[in-house]
Protein: Aminotransferase
Amino acid sequence: MVLMSAAYKFSYRVNFVKPSPIRTLVSKISAISATRKVVSFAAGEPDPNVIPRDLYSTILGKVLHEEAKSCNYSPTEGLPSLRKSIADFMWRYEGVKTSEDNVLVTVGGSQAIDLLGKLFIDPGDHVILENPSYVNTMVDWEFYGARLVGVGVDAEGVDTQNLEAVVKRLLSEGRRVKLVYTIPTGHNPAGVVMSEDRRKHLVEIASRYDLLVVEDAAYNHLVYEGSYKPLSHYDKEGRVVYVGSFSKVLGTGLRIGWLNASSEIVEVVKAIKGPSDMCAPVPMQLLVDRVLREGLYDQIKRRAVEEYARKRDTMMSALDEYVQGAVYNRPRGGMFILLKLPVDVDSEVFADRLLEKYSVAVVPAKPFYLDDSGRSSIRLNFTMVKADEIEDGIKKLGLLIRELA
Ligand SMILES: Cc1ncc(COP(=O)(O)O)c(C=O)c1O
Structure:
């Protein structure tokens, strides 16, 4: 698609802009949903019926009434009380000792990722990430001129042996390796959780080759089996920047995320963030702060984890029954199952046909890959879809696969 027009003198960075493939699909799904019922496995969101909206409404009513400055700006880096709550949260839930000076509140993890791109990436810099990886980070950092280098993922997460070999090769070729980006828990779209050994290995690699790692922790709190420490827990040298988000447990629309980093990074991020947004929305900062301070987070998270684990199991059983020959993971965390179709078909064509013919929406995984290896893979979300629609949707997915075989 051509985004440039000769009539406008856009900045050179616009040359790097690609339209988000997922946004295009989402628009199509919503257009079709307006005319007929669609079973959607395409989301990356929590179930609206699991989010305690009534509780939020009570808390919001209170904070708007009680806090005289609830509708004024907060400091750019976030309300001091929320930064303190997040620092406590990092210790309690992640085993990371930090202080409010190292925490900066953002508009979702998305803004933290964008600010880090703005802060670190010069055109031509290399960024190493998982292949596949989160498409919005890829699009966002390519906008700053990043050259993305992918490293394969298996059931244990990114292959760190291979990652080290890639780092060595790039450095020996004289390339600038600016960042390593990883989604260790509940990977989007691969659905896998990185093993503890690989987490430690990745932190060692960062230390050995003097690299900075951005750890995207968006799904760290949706874990169904086992428990995992973030990379930041193993980092003793300030080489890991933790990007956190309350989206996936408390609600994507609240738009509260944060980054936890050295005070040096926090200070510069603060300076570049202020002119663009002044601060994250204050009523939402106050809401999240009260949820944390009043000890409500535990119960909200517990309910979400129980509900999504059940839905995951329903989807796994339906896949086992109706979709033979496909390769897919059993996610121990996150929201997604990545499925390699047993037929040689372009996943974008497949997703289109499934939506048109059977009114079932899935996300083609192709745009999440840096090469052609995801050509026939699709991403299935199991958290937002209604539990009683899962079997029907998967049955139809199986039908289309058989028709194409
Ligand atoms: C891997 C990953 N990182 C970050 C985000 C950003 O989420 P938010 O900006 O809502 O925190 C998402 C959302 O889908 C995601 O999947």
Summary: The chain has two domains: 19-44+299-404, 69-295. The two ends are 31 Å apart (CA to CA). DSSP finds 14 helices and 14 strands in the chain.
